From TrEMBL:
This is YCII-related domain-containing protein. It comes from Leifsonia tongyongensis. It comes from the Bacteria. Residues 1-109 form the YCII-related domain. The lineage of its organism: Bacteria, Bacillati, Actinomycetota, Actinomycetes, Micrococcales. InterPro entries: Dimeric_a/b-barrel, YCII.
Length: 110
């Protein structure tokens, strides 16, 4: 089953320390095991566009619509046997320490 890790910054997390940023090792390990499908960083919220249709009209605004201190910084898609395995893998991601990670099962349309 596929799981998405939403990598989120968190102002309450411990400060970033490059000494503990092992993202390269984390990615290499999962790719060697065939668990990680793909993933990447995302541009910051100020570079985003919010798209919605209201009363039949397209509305596009710059950046986040609401002020928030937390935002999605990246993502990874994993192919795991269980939610427990996905959580265990997420716990080894450096942003589990410096931010937070939301783990969600992908729910395909059928």
């Amino acid at each position: 089953m596929e799981y998405m890790l939403l990598i989120t910054n968190d102002p309450d997390a411990e400060p970033y320390d490059p000494q503990f940023d092992n993202i390269g090792e984390w990615v290499d390990d999962l790719e060697k095991k065939g668990i990680r499908g793909h993933g990447d960083r995302l541009r910051p919220p100020q570079d985003a566009k919010i798209v919605r249709i209201r009363r039949g009209r397209l509305e596009v605004t710059d950046g986040p619509f609401t002020e928030t201190k937390e935002w999605i910084a990246g993502y990874d898609v994993l192919d795991c046997d269980s939610m427990d395995q996905a959580v265990e893998i997420a716990s080894r991601h450096p942003m589990a320490r410096f931010g937070r990670i939301e783990v969600r099962a992908i729910w395909p349309f059928e």
